[in-house]
Design goal:
Blueprint: H1 2-12, H2 16-27, H3 36-52, H4 58-72, H5 75-91, H6 95-112, H7 115-124
Length: 136
């Protein structure tokens, strides 16, 4: 869907104004005329904007968006949403929650055989700390 791709591209480019314009466009649809998947993506775009602005409602927005994506979107788009959430959690230094989101996204990407998504998940996975040197 064009709205999904446009929202992802604007986010990836860091163009908050374009994301805002897209949200305005989607908000102007009459009730019942916006497909469920676009509603879920709209929720995710709002969560990403709230996180970028440092808004106090970002955590709740992500929780609602991920829940909506689980119910109304595709596994591919859910995995991207999980990785977006993991990026947010990483900025909050919540490594355990971020690792759970990345792990779920990686599982989905593996089932889909989606190498670019696996690469994105790998980029979000912190390197393991070096093993302590053996003592003799």
């Amino acid at each position: 869907m064009v709205g999904v791709a446009a929202g992802r591209a604007a986010h990836d480019l860091g163009d908050a104004a374009a994301v805002g314009e897209l949200l305005t466009l989607l908000d102007n649809y009459q009730p019942g005329h916006l497909p469920p998947m676009l509603r879920a993506e709209r929720d995710l775009a709002r969560a990403r904007l709230a996180a970028a602005d440092g808004g106090p409602d970002a955590a709740a927005a992500f929780a609602a968006a991920i829940s909506s994506m689980r119910e109304q979107s595709t596994p591919y788009h859910l995995a991207h949403g999980l990785l977006d959430h993991a990026e947010y959690l990483t900025r909050l230094r919540d490594a355990d929650a971020a690792a759970l989101a990345v792990g779920e996204a990686r599982t989905i990407a593996g089932r889909l055989r989606c190498d670019p998504m696996l690469d994105r998940a790998a980029d979000l996975t912190p390197a393991a700390p070096p093993a302590p040197a053996a003592t003799v």
